[in-house]
């Protein structure tokens, strides 16, 4: 019997190791985002692909976890220079390397794809997940993917479960599920906005 995605009487978000709502942003340091907490929250997000329940989502999850690993590897190599994501990238680039910085770019793209899909689905209560995810893919990752990768992601979009089945796996109390998903998405969107500005700046080029 499959383990439920949420504890009795709770929601999926109760099980998450870290929510994006508890990822610190240091406004006094140009909105610096804490590395450890952000990576933990990103890892917790990849669990949603398990809830989506299709093997077709494995490439999506693998791609995201691989990029988390690239960023964390750099953090472990230079912890004092990597307390925030911005510091991590800038110090890596000073060392004439960009493995983790490139990993962060792709991680942000994957998170953007996921957040846009879920936001659209949450906003459009009659829309099926496959429609929301396909639309988000077209607006985010698709332009960056090769002709070999696109079919793998397209297969995942087509394999989305029915909307009602997905939300029921997130919790029994649907108003609470949707409220918590909204709060979680809002926090993720805020951090992605900061990172997109940073990653598109002149400082972050290789």
TrEMBL record:
UniProt xrefs under Gene3D superfamilies: Glycolipid transfer protein
InterPro entries per the UniProt record, alphabetical: GLTP_sf, Glycolipid_transfer_prot_dom
A Pfam family: GLTP
GO molecular function terms noted in the UniProt entry: ceramide 1-phosphate binding; ceramide 1-phosphate transfer activity
Limits of the Glycolipid transfer protein domain: 33-171
Domain of life: Eukaryota
Key words, A-Z: Transport
GO cellular component term, pick one: membrane
Listed SUPFAM superfamilies: Glycolipid transfer protein, GLTP
Name this protein carries in UniProt: Glycolipid transfer protein domain-containing protein
Originating organism: Recurvomyces mirabilis
């Amino acid at each position: 019997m499959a383990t439920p995605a949420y504890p009795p009487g709770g929601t999926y978000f109760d099980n998450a190791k870290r929510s994006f709502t508890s990822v610190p942003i240091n406004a006094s340091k140009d909105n610096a985002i804490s590395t450890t907490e952000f990576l933990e929250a990103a890892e917790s997000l990849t669990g949603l692909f398990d809830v989506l329940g299709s093997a077709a989502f494995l490439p999506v999850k693998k791609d995201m976890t691989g990029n988390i690993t690239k960023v964390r590897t750099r953090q472990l190599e230079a912890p004092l220079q990597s307390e925030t994501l911005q510091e991590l990238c800038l110090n890596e680039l000073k060392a004439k390397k960009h493995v983790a910085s490139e990993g962060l770019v792709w991680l942000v793209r994957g998170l953007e794809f996921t957040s846009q899909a879920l936001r659209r689905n949450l906003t459009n209560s009659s829309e099926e997940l496959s429609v929301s995810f396909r639309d988000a893919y077209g607006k985010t990752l698709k332009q960056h993917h090769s002709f070999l990768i696109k079919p793998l992601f397209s297969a995942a979009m087509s394999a989305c479960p029915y909307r009602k089945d997905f939300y029921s796996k997130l919790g029994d109390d649907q108003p609470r599920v949707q409220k918590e998903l909204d709060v979680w998405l809002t926090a993720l969107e805020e951090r992605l906005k900061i990172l997109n500005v940073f990653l598109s700046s002149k400082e972050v080029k290789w």
